[in-house]
Specification:
By secondary structure, the protein is of the alpha+beta class. It has a domain of 79 residues: Arc Repressor Mutant, subunit A. It has 4 helices and 5 strands. Helix 1 crosses helix 4. It is globular, with a radius of gyration of 19 Å. The C terminus is likely disordered.
Length: 135
């Protein structure tokens, strides 16, 4: 037996999905960093910080999927608004389609998820390392 760090697995899963969520939010409207965080988190209990969002936005910008423009604000300093480029719109369409296919695969493979049977402590779970369970 060995222990699996579920927090790390969740972190890795969120990294990939978060990029798609950012593209999706920007597909609907432009955002500055803090407004994007508020839009994505809403009241769903997921915590995001600027330290998570801005590196992704910077990478998406380098890849040509988003562009940014400074806009004066009546409520403080100028804000950097991000919008999808044409390439970003296409990337969102392709990735959203793939995400849907992966969701369907997980649903088919595991059936309906019963939240009543989820482990209470997701920090670590034990996994049997042996490949052959024959006696």
């Amino acid at each position: 037996m060995y222990l699996v760090d579920m927090e790390n697995k969740i972190k890795q899963l969120r990294k990939g999905i978060l990029e798609l969520a950012i593209l999706g939010a920007l597909d609907r409207q432009s955002h500055y960093g803090f407004s994007l965080i508020k839009h994505l988190t809403g009241d769903n209990g997921i915590e995001l910080t600027e330290g998570t969002i801005y590196p992704i936005l910077a990478r998406l910008s380098r890849e040509g999927l988003v562009s940014a423009e400074w806009v004066e604000s009546s409520q403080g300093p100028p804000r950097k608004y991000y919008v999808l480029t044409e390439s970003g719109l296409e990337a969102h369409r392709v990735l959203a389609g793939e995400f849907t296919r992966l969701q369907e695969l997980v649903a088919r493979a595991s059936g309906a998820v019963d939240r009543n049977h989820a482990p209470e402590n997701l920090a670590q779970i034990e996994v049997n390392k042996e490949a052959n369970h024959d006696k």
